[in-house]
Amino acid sequence: MRSIDDMFLEMNKIAGEEGYRFNPDREELANLLEGLWVNEHRYGYPLCPCRLGYGELAQDMDIICPCNYRDADIAEFGSCLCTLYVDEEWGDTKVHEPVPERRPGEYFIKGYPAIIEQKGAGGKDMAEVYRCQVCGYLCAREEAPDLCPICRAKKERFEKFGMK
Ligand code: SF4
0.85 cut: is pTM over it? Predict the structure, then answer.
């Protein structure tokens, strides 16, 4: 298993390439990274440190960091739910309103795979679903992630995942 430092180096590289920033508060950042690292050791994947997951990969796919909700949260509130990723102005503001949970509650109740199946890839309120051809990781996004958060496979290894 990679160390926290290695995990952060890797995340930092990808964030830099994608134009993302991390929380500038060192203590908050260290706590969030530790939470991610603990989850990676506990579950085998970096589950969001501020959400409750099932502890099963298939159920938690949308909340593996960086989660499916990060980009929309940063665009609307200046940070992701956990405040691990922030925008340029975030550090200049002293008080931040809490970011509301964007993940629909039914994802937790019914499970992520059931919801994807029910709504279908590209459905009314879902982005396209992409599947990592190396490890099977599924994510619903506008486009495939640059790097699979599970096996680190590159974007080219993702395919559109069609469901009825
Ligand atoms: S991007 Fe932020 S909210 Fe999303 S999983 Fe990572 S730490 Fe949690």
Answer: no
